[in-house]
Design a protein that fits this description.
The chain is built from six helices and five strands; from the N terminus they run E-H-E-H-E-H-E-H-E-H-H. By secondary structure, the protein is of the alpha/beta class.
Amino acid sequence: MQKKKVAIIMGSDSDLPVVKKAIDKLNSLNIQTEVHIMSAHRTPDLAADFAKNAISNDIGVIIAAAGMAAHLAGVIAAHTTLPIIGLPIKSTLEGLDALLSTVQMPPGVPVATVGINNAENAAILAAQMLAIADNNISLKLSEMKENMRNRVIEKNKNLK
């Protein structure tokens, strides 16, 4: 069985510095990614076609990063049954506009949404979704959580 990939779509190449954190986190978990630039407003047909064909291209989860009006995640969600994670990007209004545009979806078109610029959480959430059917990813996530736990314990010891 082909391993599922995580697709990361960003509305503009200016989003890449934020999106890179998601790519790096997924790579550290040995999860294959594919990255694209597509706009909900400037290339809506490309975005819709991508979403419609994502399942047949072995994609398991899509992260959609966008700032300002941030309709990308919703457009993608409208055209697929795959889970979509919206990653609001800080641009105007400190990113609040992107957050609200991403999280306020109509009934029947859900988009899971992480915090503004929180690409690492988007990657971890995508990995957790894939881990439902992949024990290797589940084990890597457990190791990651254990490492975080150990770092906090060590910091607490160093504080005393």
